[in-house]
Amino acid sequence: MGKFRDSVDVRALRFAIGFPLLLAVGFVVCALLVRPELPEPLAVRWTDSGAADFAPFAAVTGAGASLIIVVGWAVLFQAVPLSRPAMMRRIMMGAGLSMSLFITTVLAAVLVGQLGLADARESHVDASVLALGSGAAVGLGVVMGFVFKADERWSVDDDVAVRQALERERDPELARDTVSLWVHARSSIFVMLGIATVLPAALLTIAVPWLAALLVAVALVAAAFLFARIRVDRSGLRVFAAGIIRVMDVPAAAIDAATPKDVRAADYGGWGYRIHGNTTALLVSSGPAVVIDRADGRRLAVSGGTAVSADNLSQTLSRVADRARHGGGPPAP
């Protein structure tokens, strides 16, 4: 029980459980108060020619109250776990309030549109109640999103942040030895890729839909692999194709030299991840890159973004490699 309480916002949990329940009870009570003025059965669906489907009063009120509770719980409970970002919890709290109030508004508009009628076939959904209630639901949801204070708790992420801060305090040079960089192809490459795949897919949609979907999927995968995330720290170099697939992991001690160069992708086998002879490359475009010589004789090449970022990346790699060769001590002058 203690672990559960530590993982949820208790105040948000109480509200998430209680608000839809109270709203549903309020709807049922109000429906019972106007019951003598409502026809039996009630209209529940309308077409251009009038009411089309009908249901008993008890079924309408029971199903309506259940819908308020189920939808309210489904959305509001998303704001309860403390592991989720505070902004997401605020959005879900506001959305849950709006959804619950909107469903209640629709049900109220259905009942008000049938007040005083002997036959539900002459009824309609009251537009005034629907418009006013919907506006209030949206407005109150926005207000709730702003005023809801996410309950901040100490988490594993906070432990990591404190540990990193202490490491930076003990070693001011640590920040200089850490680089995180995203690189991607030029925008013209993505335009060409779209022209080569998406436009033919649009033409094939009518004739062969599955082939059109396959072309779009291929285009998305190809575009993803024209992005790369590069991470350098004192442990070495890690390169992630599409930002998530690790394709290079080089320990700092295994790096012999890192040199910024202006390269042509064709010289390394083309764009993307390539193994060309004793060279492994991940180039998203021709241009600034870092060429890395390993101690075992192999060579790596990774795109460096701009000339400035490539130069910074090579200097950091040289620094961490030199530190690793000296057993973790300061780099050689």
Explain this structure to me?
With 333 residues, the protein is of the alpha+beta class. It folds into two domains: 2-147, no CATH class; 163-185 and 226-325, Roll (PH-domain like). Helix content is 50%, strand content 21%. The strands form three sheets. A five-stranded mixed beta sheet has the order 7-10-11-9-8, covered by helices on one side. A hairpin with a 3-residue loop joins strand 5 (236-241) and strand 6 (245-251). The longest helix has 27 residues, at 86-112. The protein starts with a helix and ends in an 8-residue tail after the last helix.
Please indicate the percent range of residues in DSSP E strands (runs of 2 or more).
15-25%
Shape: elongated
What is the domain total for the residues?
A: 2
The spatial strand order of the largest sheet comes to 7-10-11-9-8
Q: Please bin the fraction of helical residues.
A: 40-55%
Q: Helical stretch count?
A: 9
Class computed from helices, strands and strand pairing: alpha+beta
Sequence of secondary-structure elements: HHEEHHHHEHHEEEEEEEEH
| Euclidean distance between termini CA atoms | 57 Å
Q: What's the gyration radius in Å?
A: 31 Å
Mean pLDDT: 82
Main β-sheet description: 5 strands, mixed
How many strands appear in the DSSP assignment? Answer: 11
Q: Any low-confidence stretches, pLDDT <50, length ≥5?
A: none
